[in-house]
Amino acid sequence: KKGSYEHFMQKEIHEQPESLTTTMRGRLIRGGSCNAKGVLLGGLKDHLKTIRRSRRVIFIGCGTSYNAALAARPFLEELSGVPVSMELASDLLDRQGPIYREDTAVFVSQSGETADTLLALEYALKNGALCVGITNTVGSAIARNTHCGVHINAGCEIGVASTKAYTSQIVVMAMLAIAVGDDAISSQSRREAVIDGLFDLPNKVREVLKLDDEMKDLAKLLMDEQSLLVFGRGYNYATALEGALKVKEVALMHSEGILAGEMKHGPLALVDETLPIVVIATHDNCFSKQQSVIQQLHARKGRLIVMCSKGEASLVCPSGSCRVIEVPQVEDCLQPVINIIPLQLLAYHLTVLRGYDVDQPRNLAKSVTTQ
Ligand code: UD1
Ligand code: M6R
């Protein structure tokens, strides 16, 4: 079943051009002489009005599924104008946080069986919210018990570390944002640009996967480190959290995803010439802020690995003293799909080099069905 690959995680990372193609199949409308470009999500079409009119959208999930929702949040806020809040399922349950009839609660789960997410679903149903599922598993508890939803159709994911489900979840939530925002003429050109970006995304993913050897070399350099920080912001705050989660989960190396805007509020104290730091600085509306973060880390002799858009190495590292990972540039809201892939590859190679179990990390289960 692994074909020519040694591990399921490796196979699942490399099959992302295909899994993303299946996720989008039949759901993107190309547009033409009589109809505009658009998105068709069969499971949501009768509920879009309710979602548009809701007072708030709440994304609820755990682990990687939460991170995927965090990556999609800015685009949904932009296109819907509805406030979007984020909840880790366990924290929502601990607090018994307020949920109302006027809310849309979106449950994101690869397996559709995660105990905390399911309990949060029961709680939101009891409070009268519209409950939407985004899951990879047809017939799962979350798919069955939500009012409506979207299957991400990424194909079976076997590695405990979620990889292809993450990128498909982001793409489904970007399509959801387009569908919800479909009634606004003012954002039509933006929606169409993102739809074009979605059509081209599998090709861009194929391109970024060519960094495999480069990531293996980087892993060789980092394999004996104790810790790795990942700085991101905006669309790529989620990339920082998810990259760090992959590294700690499979490579068993301490890793922390940090919101770059918080740097001066504590994390900067950690910076010295030994601690490796990945900074995500691909081109978007936060670019100049990330350039100044890089300068400040550099001034403290930080050991930087900067991820930037192709051709922009000299803009992020004028001194030439940091290591640079150049990735293809796509629409800003889709960039998290591209940017996570080098970090998935890095986590994979670190795990192999450190001699740990890739597909079955110690102490973890693929589906967390107990609290
Ligand atoms: C559906 C079919 C697909 C077919 C397509 C043709 C299924 C599972 N999908 O896909 O095989 O090719 O029509 O038009 O038969 N749902 C939830 N909660 C969730 C996920 C989904 O309630 O978490 C519901 C949806 O609201 C929908 C149904 O499950 O009623 C199927 O969802 P989805 O597979 O995403 O719908 P389509 O893409 O239309
Ligand atoms: O099946 P789910 O998406 O609900 O699972 C949620 C988390 O348990 C899961 O994403 C976990 O964080 C992964 N092992 C991360 O790779």
From TrEMBL:
Transmembrane segments: none annotated. Its EC number is 2.6.1.16. Pathway: Nucleotide-sugar biosynthesis; UDP-N-acetyl-alpha-D-glucosamine biosynthesis; alpha-D-glucosamine 6-phosphate from D-fructose 6-phosphate: step 1/1. GO terms for biological process: fructose 6-phosphate metabolic process; protein N-linked glycosylation; UDP-N-acetylglucosamine metabolic process. Keywords: Aminotransferase, Glutamine amidotransferase, Repeat, Transferase. GO terms for molecular function: carbohydrate derivative binding; glutamine-fructose-6-phosphate transaminase (isomerizing) activity. It comes from the Eukaryota. It catalyses: D-fructose 6-phosphate + L-glutamine = D-glucosamine 6-phosphate + L-glutamate. Residues 47-186, 218-361 form the SIS domain. This is glutamine--fructose-6-phosphate transaminase (isomerizing). It comes from Amborella trichopoda. The chain holds residues 327 to 697 of 697 of the full protein.
